[in-house]
Design brief:
Distance between the termini: 30 Å
Strand order of the largest sheet: 6-5-1-7
Order of helices and strands: EEHHHEHEEEHE
Strand content: 25-35%
CATH architecture of the largest domain: 2-Layer Sandwich
Shape: elongated
Radius of gyration: 22 Å
Number of domains: 2
Structural class: alpha+beta
Oligomer: single chain
CATH superfamily of the largest domain: Ribosomal protein L7/L12, C-terminal domain/Adaptor protein ClpS
CATH class of the largest domain: Alpha Beta
Number of strands: 7
Length: 139
């Protein structure tokens, strides 16, 4: 557990990172029209040949398009559906915690904890000890 100075004025910033993971799931190996549609979906796919795109899919016919912020992710989702691609969306959102020392308002500092699990444990300990929480949404 990270040792933090309880004599300071701490605020725990709890940020919810809204993310989506997009997957294309073909029921069988994709055909040429589907591969050509895929090339129109993302700039990095435009440089790939149909054979390279086919090889990028797993044996079970899944292509991981990537993880995106909600706005970009839903734009890609809509574009993929318009192209007739069998796209699926998964929630990939997560939370992070940042303890901020507000003892001196003009010289605020943060307690950076690189290990995510340790940062969460420390934040929960701080909250249980009465530190205020600020909720932030990140798109």
């Amino acid at each position: 557990m990270v040792d933090w100075d309880r004599s300071r004025i701490w605020v725990v910033q709890h940020t919810r990172h809204n993310r989506v993971r997009l997957l294309i799931r073909w029921s069988s190996r994709p055909d040429l029209p589907q591969l050509l549609a895929l090339r129109r979906l993302r700039p990095e796919y435009q440089e790939m040949t149909p054979a390279q795109l086919k090889a990028a899919a797993t044996e079970s016919g899944i292509l991981d398009v990537g993880t995106f912020g909600r706005i970009e992710g839903h734009q890609l989702l809509r574009a993929a559906r318009e192209l007739g691609l069998p796209i699926h969306v998964e929630d990939a959102s997560f939370s992070s915690y940042l303890p901020i020392d507000r003892t001196v308002p003009t010289a605020q500092s943060a307690l950076l904890i690189e290990d995510d699990a340790e940062a969460e444990r420390t934040a929960k300990e701080m909250i249980a000890a009465g530190c205020a929480v600020e909720y932030v949404e990140a798109c």
